[in-house]
Prior knowledge:
The structure is a homotetramer. Chain A has 5 helices and 17 strands. By secondary structure, chain A is α+β, with helices and mostly antiparallel strands. At the A-B interface, α1, α2, β9, β10 and α3 of A face α1, α2, β9, β10 and α3 of B.
Amino acid sequence: xxxHGVKIDDTYAEAFPAWVSSVIITGATRxxxxxxxxxxxxxxxxxxxxxxxxxxxxxIPPQRTPDGRPGFGILIVHPKKKHLKEQLVERVAECVLTxxxxxxxxxxxxxxxxxxxxxxxxxxxxxxxxxxxDRSVWAIPIMGGxxxxxxxxxxxxxxxxxxxxVMGESQMSALIGAQAAVEAIMDVxxxxxxxxxxxxxxxxxxxxxxxxxxxxxxxxxYCPTLKGKVPESKVPEGxxxxxxIVIDGVSEAAVSEAMAEGIxxxxxxxxxxxxxxxxxxxTLGPFKFDLHKIL
Amino acid sequence: xxxHGVKIDDTYAEAFPAWVSSVIITGATRxxxxxxxxxxxxxxxxxxxxxxxxxxxxxIPPQRTPDGRPGFGILIVHPKKKHLKEQLVERVAECVLTxxxxxxxxxxxxxxxxxxxxxxxxxxxxxxxxxxxDRSVWAIPIMGGxxxxxxxxxxxxxxxxxxxxVMGESQMSALIGAQAAVEAIMDVxxxxxxxxxxxxxxxxxxxxxxxxxxxxxxxxxYCPTLKGKVPESKVPEGxxxxxxIVIDGVSEAAVSEAMAEGIxxxxxxxxxxxxxxxxxxxTLGPFKFDLHKIL
Amino acid sequence: xxxHGVKIDDTYAEAFPAWVSSVIITGATRxxxxxxxxxxxxxxxxxxxxxxxxxxxxxIPPQRTPDGRPGFGILIVHPKKKHLKEQLVERVAECVLTxxxxxxxxxxxxxxxxxxxxxxxxxxxxxxxxxxxDRSVWAIPIMGGxxxxxxxxxxxxxxxxxxxxVMGESQMSALIGAQAAVEAIMDVxxxxxxxxxxxxxxxxxxxxxxxxxxxxxxxxxYCPTLKGKVPESKVPEGxxxxxxIVIDGVSEAAVSEAMAEGIxxxxxxxxxxxxxxxxxxxTLGPFKFDLHKIL
Amino acid sequence: xxxHGVKIDDTYAEAFPAWVSSVIITGATRxxxxxxxxxxxxxxxxxxxxxxxxxxxxxIPPQRTPDGRPGFGILIVHPKKKHLKEQLVERVAECVLTxxxxxxxxxxxxxxxxxxxxxxxxxxxxxxxxxxxDRSVWAIPIMGGxxxxxxxxxxxxxxxxxxxxVMGESQMSALIGAQAAVEAIMDVxxxxxxxxxxxxxxxxxxxxxxxxxxxxxxxxxYCPTLKGKVPESKVPEGxxxxxxIVIDGVSEAAVSEAMAEGIxxxxxxxxxxxxxxxxxxxTLGPFKFDLHKIL
Lengths: 295, 295, 295, 295
């Protein structure tokens, strides 16, 4: 299979179940909402070493937010619901409640299950309940004015670890291909790429052959500089750069759409040569995203 | 005392000792380095609820980085050295090693003390030692190419919690004043503002009068909407917005300079009326930054 | 009439007919497309002193551009079709053809009338015709690779000079209100705000009382610092800042929607007090946008 | 000669004398100053088709601007002083005076020669003279508050058309190399890159062989897709992308430094293969920048 001259490998991405919550952060301006969303989704690339995975899902213009101000939807993700709840509370408390002019709303009002985010105790008794449209919120007097927060945030069983690899004739071809992919995924609702700029520069394998204390180590079979030095390198001839896109989403459909749109966009970039995906032979994750089927 | 017609309160900011490490993150482009720096300093506003405090110190042009590529200097801060070390390792491993095209260097080569950041085990035996200029680094083969990392990062005893309050005739006057302050502080070497966009919208007091389980709660004496409702409000007549700037730095001098430059910049904004600072009567922190003295 | 506590003046904005062309600029990444769009719409605030008015209409994700790459739609506007044609050619030739990785497509393929933008002569005979989807384009060999350009760009009779004024209790309240308005307008299809950041800081009147050689001069009736100094000042009591939003669009409906969405967003900002609009008593422009009717 | 493994051609860039004026634009925030600077330097890539060449020289922090607010220095460039004067006035009047919160100052107070930019007539008699530090300025009442402008702007005889070509093993390697070069040049004082994002994607030759009405056309000798199709192609073996950086500056020294720093930064990017420069055999421009000498 080829898209725009780029070969698509006949393989699948293996992914895992995870709990996903969705928060809308609004602010007086787009920039103010963005700064808070960036802080709240920071240090959240992979649960291998971070307390959660998180990313910005979408910009939401004033016309479509609960309070008529510009906002961003973010996703916070963890395999365990208890950990997700803790992270949700801490990230909203430390990165949104503290930010200038921001407010918080439930990003999935239709979700059957909700997690409590009880910020109103911060008000020390000066807080009060009110409404924004049809949403029940707490208003907390703060130095900057009043903080408005909805305290029940929707959570669903979603998918973590959807992925594909962009390979290029040069490191920079693969990188720009990966950037184009991330930009396409930004427009897919319900899916985020949690790594810096959405791109993984150092895709890993589980464990380590040499250092037994390591949970993860470099995936030498996909390292261009090790081609010819390791047996059975999976780096195709003529490929000098490989970048991985990892996707978390609210549903199998969202991750599938994100993978498809991301791959199509990457294939439009000059010098992108090959697209494949990572899996563990189907032994680990229950979700399989077959590249040829989703495209 | 007045600056550009803005009254400067005759008071001081109280601050605390903390360990501060400094990392330089470079990338193929400024944007790539920036994305990694933002991720590495995310979810790090206050140790009240975050595992560390962190911020971007400065952009460093290619002319002045160890590897001749654009970079950013970041500071990671924690009162306890053991916690700082853990956070330093995790943040560099998860947010810089994983990022596309990035490299890591020691931001304080002259610091007497260094913290180890041993990323090279990620190389699973394929890593090797080399030099960038006069710096000893490890090169780790990764999918994107090779990751270069210096593994000893300077750490010093610095200062956390330097602060001042910007008060304005309207919420937005105080906010723009605070933004101008943050922009001035960006140009002060060795000082960061760890909150979203550098600004605290909801300054807190220690503990809570009503909810005993809370470590911190709204500082009602500085809330404009509570003026007239709480006794002894410290919001001056005609003030409708108060934003706090909190500064961490490598030294008392750096925090002092950051406070001075930030206050001067805030005072240039139309509608800024009053500058003060937060302290606990000198009972908590050993550092006192007297506003009139530093200006 | 009030929106979120902000009084909406019972008046109308007067606007004028103008020719409007729409161009889609795509690039390898969103940033590359954006840089070209910004250059192509620069120095284009008002035809009082610029050769055209222009602005970025919308970001278009890879999923929805002709060539599957990220792009921006821009509008270029002039009352006279001949001038618009010249400006369209020059701006595309100098700011898009010259930019790295960009391509050009007709942003209004359904427009009955088209303007020619014959860039292919730049190919000096090495150019050739091809297709992108169902669009006929020229491919021009360039240093960076190949430039792809559609050479017929749709043009319609639209509207220039739609406007409203945001007034605030402080300069900064009005400014943030105006920013929120611009951000809402960005999401309205077919309408742009051509001034820097979308905001006019120095709204003008036609001509000058004192300096007869001036085509336009400060609108003293709306200057807060002249309240009490000029007779019949139109600055309401308690207003210290006034910013104007000027809107050009492809149709009366687009400008009307942009005005409505912009005003609603401005009214959500703390300290915004009053919204009005500019007109010349209906003597100049055939279009009248009654604020109460459009909201 | 090689830098970081990249071959530097033994040739020179040929450049031309031009008049260069320097303006400092400040604003309440960095973003507000930036928006105005971008508009004022837009549609200004090349005097082949634009009324001037222009670019942002440097960000200037509040600590170092005349009015203690964040600002940007811009350069406006034209071979003819009369044209420069007209463009300087129009660009400042339409893109800075109109912008929210901005002020204008002379960026080269030490220049022997000055151009008048008499904006104060816009005040219609309500304007008045005052001082900002030791600078004489006019204050003009406007809707947003007061516009502050210095009305004599320094102008010097500088250099236009300094240049070099970045060639890469792939289109994207050359592009990222060119981006790195532009980022290095941003830190060189007194030099700008006027093209979109600082990069030329379609470098040209003077005139056209086939279309006699064209002043400039594609430089087929440097087009990678024409290698093997045109005799004497100058595209080295293995090169698939060529981007040009064009530099205007206040002096031969500034352009020389910008070229040197830009080339060094480009050479740090993986896949960059060759650096050369454009000249016309020395017949046109009096300035010759020998690559080996300046590095």
